[in-house]
Amino acid sequence: MSPLRILVIAVLLYIGYRLITGGRTKSSRDDTISSDPRKPDEPVQDVLVEDPICHSLVPKQQAIHLKHRGSMVYFCSEECCNTFVAQEGSES
User: Fold this and answer.
1) Which three-class secondary structure string do you get for 21-71?
2) Which of 24, 38, 41, 75 is the most buried (most CB within 10 A)?
3) pLDDT per residue as tens digits for the range 25-37
4) The whole model's pTM is what?
5) Radius of gyration for the chain, computed over Cα atoms and rounded to the nearest angstrom
6) Distance, CA of 91 to CA of 86 (rounded, Å)
7) Res 11 pLDDT > 60
């Protein structure tokens, strides 16, 4: 077998391999770990709510909540909740 035939067979084998694998190569993006585990089309699972006492932002699912005059009020801590209840009691 001549060297030219070997070269042609090697090129054909390489082209066949690329066709079978779809021509995909591993990019550097595939190797990195994403800091956001959500897929781009997934809705946001939690929202931030503002504490009415100290005005800090707290994830809604982790916040302490109190039903006040028909609506929910969210707090960052028991202390802020107790302060709110004391202030509302003194205003009445």
Assistant:
1) HCCCCCCHHHHCCCCCCCCCCCCCCCCEEECCCCCCEEECCCCEEEEECCE
2) 75
3) 655 455 555 555 5
4) 0.50
5) 31
6) 9
7) yes
